[in-house]
């Protein structure tokens, strides 16, 4: 859906494939803040909501359309308020069939994520310090979401 500024309104829906009956999670991610280029992390508004099983039907009725679908298999770790996800991304060969998948790459993706109140620039320093500890094995970098679209 497009808002009044004509920029797309993007929502992400996800759910656990390991346990049946787990709720869907709907996430709104705002546009990245344009601020200090020396900031070590991308900053944007986020709203995360647990929903019922009929989320996909509801979103279609609201006028949203699916852009892409994938399966992520891996592990989630926590260090304080940081969430570290290490996973492989799999392409779904037949839409809606999560049993028919193939890996996009042989590599793992490492994602470092923190949800914090606005103005907590110290958190980005904590993220950089954690990334420095992984440096021999992993190269963490900020990803410009506009570059991916």
TrEMBL record:
GO terms for biological process: regulation of transcription by RNA polymerase II; termination of RNA polymerase II transcription. Pfam families: Med18. Keywords: Activator, Nucleus, Transcription, Transcription regulation. One of its GO terms (molecular function) is transcription coregulator activity. GO terms for cellular component: core mediator complex; mediator complex. It is found in: Nucleus. Belongs to the Mediator complex subunit 18 family. Component of the Mediator complex. Component of the Mediator complex, a coactivator involved in the regulated transcription of nearly all RNA polymerase II-dependent genes. Mediator functions as a bridge to convey information from gene-specific regulatory proteins to the basal RNA polymerase II transcription machinery. Mediator is recruited to promoters by direct interactions with regulatory proteins and serves as a scaffold for the assembly of a functional preinitiation complex with RNA polymerase II and the general transcription factors. This is Mediator of RNA polymerase II transcription subunit 18. It comes from Opisthocomus hoazin.
């Amino acid at each position: 859906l497009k808002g009044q500024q004509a920029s797309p309104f993007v929502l992400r829906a996800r759910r656990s494939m390991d346990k049946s009956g787990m709720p869907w999670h709907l996430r709104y991610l705002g546009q990245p803040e344009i601020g200090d280029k020396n900031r070590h992390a991308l900053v944007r508004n986020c709203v995360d909501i647990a929903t019922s099983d009929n989320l996909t039907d509801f979103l279609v009725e609201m006028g949203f359309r699916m852009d892409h679908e994938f399966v992520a298999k891996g592990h989630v770790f926590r260090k304080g308020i940081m969430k570290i996800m290490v996973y492989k991304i799999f392409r779904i060969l037949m839409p809606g069939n999560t049993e028919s998948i193939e890996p996009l790459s042989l590599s793992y993706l490492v994602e470092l994520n923190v949800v914090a109140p606005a103005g907590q620039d110290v958190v980005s320093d904590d993220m950089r310090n954690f990334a420095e500890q992984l440096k021999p094995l992993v190269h963490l970098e900020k990803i410009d979401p506009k570059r991916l679209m």
